[in-house]
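This section describes the prediction task in plain terms. A model, or a person checking by hand, is given the sequence of a single protein chain and must write out its three-dimensional structure as a string of tokens. No templates, partner chains or ligands are provided. The sample shown here is typical of the held-out split.
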Amino acid sequence: MKMKSQHLNVVKMLAYSGAPKREVARTANISEQTLYNWIKDDDFARLHEAYTSRYQKAVEEYQLTSNYEQFLLDLEISKNDKDIVSCLAYIDANITGIIENKTSRIDNILEKCISLIEKRIDSETADDELLIYLLDRYLKNFNK
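The expected answer:
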């Protein structure tokens, strides 16, 4: 099969999002049967495997080499709440694609962020909406 940009977009959705195939098909505006036919194709399967393994390797390397404590410290010393919101959006974006057996690491990050925001609220340097946001993300992640 000749790979087009739509094929590549679907491969990325499958590899990065962890979303069910039905949802991927709906998002890509293709039928489920079309998606299953693509998945059966050898070229598509090889491309999907390459993206999936590259993504999993990147996630594992990120978790091994990232310094979460420094990241949280940077959040704490930031004087601009917009910076914190953008960091939280970054965490939120990465939670959805993390491999399931790594969720305890995400829970640790969220717990530390919640604690951090509570301290900022106590010192009246942050909005309680940040805490509500983090608690919501933590509970959604915990209930998976």
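For orientation: Residues 96-101 have pLDDT under 50 and may be disordered.
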